[in-house]
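Hey,
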Amino acid sequence: MTTGDRHIPFARLHNFRDLGGHRAADGRTVRWGLLYRADSLGKLRADEGASEAERADWDRFLGLGVRAVVDLRYDWEIDAKGRVPELPGLAYHHLSIEHRPYDQAALGQDVAPGPYLAERYMEVAHDGVKEIRGALDVIAGAGAEDAPLVFHCASGKDRTGLIAALVLALLGVPDDDVVADFALTELASERLLADWRATHPDAGAIWPGYGRAPAEVMTLFLAELTRRHGSVRAYAEELLEVDEQFVTALRDALLEGEAGQGGEQGRV
C-alpha cells in the first residue's frame, strides 16, 4: 500500500483510512495495517437484515483483523446512531473527548472554518485530557500487542483528527505531514455531506464548512498548541502526563524500520 491508498473503500463508511506509511523524524515509518481512523462504525451492520452492501462492508471490516475500537463520540450520539457491532475478541472503548457540543451544520454562512474549528479543537485538547490520555493508552497498548485498532467519531474529521494529530506528533511525524493527513478528509467531504442531507431532507442552508477539513484548521491548531505550551510534546507532558517512557513505548509499538536514518534533530 502507498501513502496515496489510505482510504479503504466501504459502501457506508466514507472516511476510513490507514495511518501507516508516515515517516517519523528518526527515519522509521508508521506501520501499515495497525492503526486506523474512521467515521462512525455505527454504520456497520452484522445483523440478518443487513443489505448486500452492508454485509460486504462488515466482511471488509472483519478482514482487517481489528481487535480494538475507540469510540470518541458522546453518549447521545451512540444512543442515536449505534456503535460497532459486538464481536468476540473485539474490545470496545468509549472515550468521549469533547465536552462542549456544537452544531456545525447550523453555523452561520460567514463563519470561517479555520479559526473556528481550531478554537474548538483547543477546547477539546484542554477539556478532554482524561479521555485523550485514555485513548493514547489504548492505542499504545494495542500497538504493543500487534492488535489493529480503529478510533473514530461521527465523521472521522474533528475529534478523530485531533487524536490522529497527537499520535502522529508524538511519533515524531513532521507537522506538514500531520496537516496533510488531516486534510485527506476532503476526499470524503462530498459523501459525508450527502449522508447529512439524506437524514435532514427538509433542512435549509447548511454551513459551507460542514464535512470539510481544510489544512488551515490543523495548521492553526498545532500553532496555537505550540504557542501555549511550547510544542505538542510539551502539551502532552504537561496536561496528559505523557513521559519519555510512554513516548518510547508508543514509537516502538507503532513504528517500523531502523531509527537514526532520518537525522532527527533534538527531541520531537
